[in-house]
Amino acid sequence: MGHTTFIVGAGASCEFGLVDGARLRDRIATGLDQYQFTGIWMGREEGWQAKSTLASALRTALSIDDCMHTHQANPLIQQLGKWAIVHEILSQERESCLTLDPQGVNFTAKRLSRGKDGESLLFDTWSSWLVSLFRLLTAECTVDEIPDRMSRVSFIVFNYDRCIEHALVHLLTMKLGGNREAASTIARDVDIVHPYGCLGAPWERAFPFGLEPDRAPYQAMTARIRTFTVTVA
Fold first, then answer.
1. Which residues are CB-neighbours of 225 under 8 A, at least 6 positions away?
2. First vs last Cα of the chain: how many Å apart?
């Protein structure tokens, strides 16, 4: 088996219950008045103006990244935008069907309001593209051959979330009969590149998958993501 690289585009995480770029934009636009923006210092008038500008501009933008590109000269809008991205991605990771049951044994199927006009849809990890791909990647493979097999694949992921990393650890744990330590080692060795950055590897203690947004280290997490403006600068 040669080396294979998979390109994972924006929207691939929708099968797990995360929203696409347009809905992320809309969720941020409506949530700006409720966010606490911990870790960001701003004056009352300055903050109100920045939030008002961001909320207004978001409604005319293709995405939050596009909006921040338009207002790249405003450092406070850049900070607020990144903070909001982190908050929403963490919230969606927690809502997703990739979360584990209380025993940490199985993924949890969920009904989420993701359909047209808020229709409730069922999301089940076991019906997703990632599980199908994992089964193919590890087919006709002994336990001893799995590390080498997984080292021969790479992912280029155009999303901020850590769905692939999180799922791989658990799928490998199940494949190896419950050996999570070995599974984590194999998953860490898989080359997963996020061109725009991500919230941090979920096996790092400070950045677990689905971390409660109110407990997030926002300064560290926002530093790990790059918007379109930063990437093309």
1. 82, 85, 86, 160, 196, 197, 198, 199
2. 38
Domain map (residue ranges) of the chain: 1-18+96-195
Where do we find the tokens 């990647």? 137
Query: Do 4 and 153 meet the contact criterion of CB atoms below 8 Å apart?
Result: yes
Residues 6+ apart with CB under 8 A from 169: 180, 183, 184, 187, 202, 203
Q: How many residues comprise the chain?
A: 233
pLDDT digits (tens, 9 = 90+) for 193-214: 999 999 999 988 889 999 999 9
CB 62 within 8 Å of CB 88? no
Q: Where does residue 177 fall: left (phi above 0), alpha (psi -120 to 50 degrees), or beta otherwise?
A: left
Tokens of 49: 């103006």
Handedness of CA 142, 204, 92, 9 (dihedral sign): negative
Q: What is the structure's pLDDT at 90?
A: 96
CA nearest 206: which of 193, 197, 218?
218
Backbone angles phi, psi at 34, to 5 degrees: -95, -25
Cβ atoms within 10 Å, residue 42: 15
**């690289």: which residue's tokens?**
5
Structure tokens at 154: 């790479």
